[in-house]
Amino acid sequence: MSDKAVILLSGGLDSSTVLAVARSRGFDLHALSFSYGQKHDFELAAARRIAAAFGVREHRILTLPPDLFGDSSLVGGAAVPKDRDPLAHAGIPSTYVPARNTIFLSYALAWAEHLEAADLFIGVSAVDFSGYPDCRPEFVAAFEQLANAATRVGTELGHHITVHAPLLHLSKKETIELGMSLGVDYGLTHTCYDPAPDGAACGRCDACVLRRRGFEAAGVSDPTRYA
Amino acid sequence: MSDKAVILLSGGLDSSTVLAVARSRGFDLHALSFSYGQKHDFELAAARRIAAAFGVREHRILTLPPDLFGDSSLVGGAAVPKDRDPLAHAGIPSTYVPARNTIFLSYALAWAEHLEAADLFIGVSAVDFSGYPDCRPEFVAAFEQLANAATRVGTELGHHITVHAPLLHLSKKETIELGMSLGVDYGLTHTCYDPAPDGAACGRCDACVLRRRGFEAAGVSDPTRYA
After folding, report:
1. Where are the alpha helices (DSSP H) in chain B?
2. What does the pLDDT look like over A60-92, one tens digit per residue?
């Protein structure tokens, strides 16, 4: 079997940590990012920096049609929620992008078919997360089952495709500790949903709040540049 | 619950029949097609004709990055297999497009999230088919399970998302009989993998062979224009 893995890389804290995990396990790294109408390009710039820093074999950035994502405040015109406790907020927030992780993993699966690879990595977490349905254990397990039914790798070639979600049961603090132990330079990453024009983090959106708290809890100096 | 449904519409015989089935069940029709680097545009032209003939509420054509589909002889430079019995051929043929139906259904799911719809339709069949892994009952069942885990509709809104595959256990003959009973004009559809420059069907690729046999078995005059 191939030791190639496809890693979804947004350029944020979580996916960068996952890339480090995949590297630590000896995989031949193939990183996949997407341009899908995000309000800013700082995430993709971060993904490029991180892919370069990790020396991945190949980094692809696919341009997806943004048509179906317009409801999300990450893509459309609505304001990103700020100054609240993301974990205390019930329900799925406006930053949810419909079926995004399903679509992203489907493309990762298509690349894995091309590579004859059986390992996909995604940086979802069901602990310090924002209530998105496509970040939960049930979602990861269901996609893994689908992947094995849907593909030549999983059927004709007879390999078991694994969807690795090494952060699934980690808090943000534990994710940061893991990443630090694996040499991740979090100064390269971008997390903020609503950065300033120069890319500085707002410090107030759900993603910034969870990230900031994580660095505090881990007792790690926060390298984020705030506006 | 919404009576809206999202129907994957390639412009071929099968998906056109499925659109007729969805109409006969009273759904508010939302048809979804894709441009993903196919060697020709006759399929999409057929999809437009059929969507218009059925008076669908909305027909979207999404342009997907063709990057990951290049291995398939439907997209890349390799020749489409011809003059053989598709059902006697073991294994997954070169016309297989990696993870295509997974990606297509993922976009259908994203649109369903937008519409708050819980019904997806796809024209796969495990009877007279070409050996693609993503045309089998296991695939359809796995995607349905994923869809319910992955979405706001399936979790927070508490609806059960159904992936309808009404042709799954039908032969091509039975599909044609069903479509005729529902008033499908198969003269509008395009099936051939490798048409002539004027759109005429080759009559020799796997898709043409299965389609031609279906009309013969059903005792229906074949409206296909052959080269």
Report:
1. 13-24, 42-53, 100-115, 137-150, 172-181, 206-218
2. 999 998 877 666 666 666 778 888 887 777 778
Q: Tell me the residue length of chain B.
A: 227
What is the per-residue pLDDT for A78? 72
ipTM: 0.91
- CA–CA gap between residue A11 and residue B224 (Å, rounded): 50
Encoding tokens for residue B189?
A: 């559809």
Rounded-to-integer distance, Cα B212 and Cα A10, Å: 47
Asked if the model's pLDDT at residue B39 lies above 70, the reply is yes
| Closest listed residue to residue A180, CA positions, set A212, A208, A210, A222 | A222
State the nearest Cα–Cα gap between A98 and chain B, in angstroms: 5
Write out chain B residues lying below 8 Å of A143, CB-based. 146, 150
Distances (CA, A) of A61 to A9, A30, A48, B63: 10, 11, 9, 16
A-chain residue closest to B113, CA distance: A98
For chain A, list the domains and their CATH numbers.
4-218 (3.40.50.620)
| Cβ-defined contact of A65 to B64 (cutoff 8 Å) | yes
Q: Do A68 and B150 touch (CB under 8 A)?
A: no
Q: Which parts of chain A register pLDDT below 50?
A: none
Specify the pLDDT at position A69. 67
Of B64, B102, B154, the CB nearest to A146: B102
Q: Which residues are bridge partners to B33 per DSSP?
A: B61
